[in-house]
Structure formats: C-alpha cells, structure tokens
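Friendly challenge for the regulars: who can give me the structure tokens for this chain first? No prize, just bragging rights.
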Amino acid sequence: MSNTLLRVYPSELKLPFELKKANSGCIELVNKTEERVAFKVKTTNPRKYAVRPTSGIVPPGGSCGITITMQAPKEIPQDYQCKDKFLVQSVVVQEGITNRDIVPEMFSRVPDRVVEEFKLRVVYIPANPPSPVPEEDEEEIADSEIDHEVFRQSMIHPASRQGHTSGSQPSYDEEVSMVNSEVAKYVDENKKLQQELELLRERNQSFGGFSPKFVLFVFLLFVLVGYLMTGRKV
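First reply, four minutes later:
Bragging rights claimed.
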C-alpha cells in the first residue's frame, strides 16, 4: 500500500461511542503532489456510516476534510472493539475534470493508471470521559468556600455592616477615628467625675465634718429664706 499522492490524517478513524446517539469523526486529505488528485471513500459497512463528501478532487498542495457520521448504536460491542474499516482511493486526473466527472471506473486498476489506497480502521472512544476531579471533592471545596465567606462576614465590625446596609460603607481610617473619639470622650468624662468627687470632698471638709444630710438641709434652708425675703421685697 503506497501513499505518495494523498496524506491521510489521522491514520485511525476515532469515533465517540454512545448508545442511542449518533457521533461523528473527521479525516483530512492533503495533496502531496503538484497534480490534481481525485479521491473516493469506501467502507465495509455502508449502512452504518454517512460520509460527506464520498468523493472529490484535491488541488495541488491543497487539502480536503471528510466528515464520517456513525448511526446511533443500539448495543455495546464486546470490549468496544470495532471491525469496520474505511478505504481511501486516490488517482491523478487531468485538467478539466470536475467532481461530477468522478465515476467508480476511474479507480479501477488498469495499465498506465496508478491508483493508491489507504486503509483506516475504526476505533471507538468514550463519548463522555470521566472528570479528573471527583464530584464529591468539588462539593467539599464549594462548602469550604461558603463557610469561609460566612466567617469573614461575621468578623466585620457591626458599624461597618450597618453602613454597608444603608449604602455607605466607612473605610478603615474612619472606623479608627471613630474609636479614638469615643475613647477621648470617656477619658474626659472620667476626669470630670474625678474633679466633682474632689469638690465634694473639699466641701465636706469645709463644713467641719458635718454629714451630707445636714449640709443639704442647711442649703435648702438658705434657699427658702432667700425666697421668702425676695417675696417680701416684691
């Protein structure tokens, strides 16, 4: 079997195999010469396959793609082995010959005519190869990502979440400034409380150790006397 006119690629016809579903494969014919080459594709099981195109002419240095479709299989063959074969015949033709002029007699072996033949066997391949990553692993990865997202959201400052809900999310610098202002406020209030406590202690000592109730009673008495005196003047 010689192969000097057309290069057939690939050397095997690999077809995806799937029950009750038709699948296709492709082969490519490349003209290796400077002549016009006619081809014809034959198969050992023509009822099982549809070939497009079955014949044609490849220009010098050109190529032609052929699609082969297998009918939907009804059962799985033993060990996925297929005994079907294809035959690609090629012959040099003269100028002026078109696809319509191609007839079976052109590929008959006669004196002074070189007819080359290339045989391809059919190889079944899985239509849906298994995924390299198991589905369970993908689910575990997805769950871990969700848990991480929930944990990250729970660590966000409440003020930041409130700002995000209202449409304005404060930045990190703004949050630090707010915290610093709150701390300064608490420090000032603490200082004021300490100052008031010192004043109360001084007042208690100035009254010679009198009890707070006695001091309060004297203060209210002065207020009442002052009110009465003011009312009399009016």
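The chain has two domains: 6-126, 192-234. Residues 137-151, 163-168 have pLDDT under 50 and may be disordered. Your move, everyone else.
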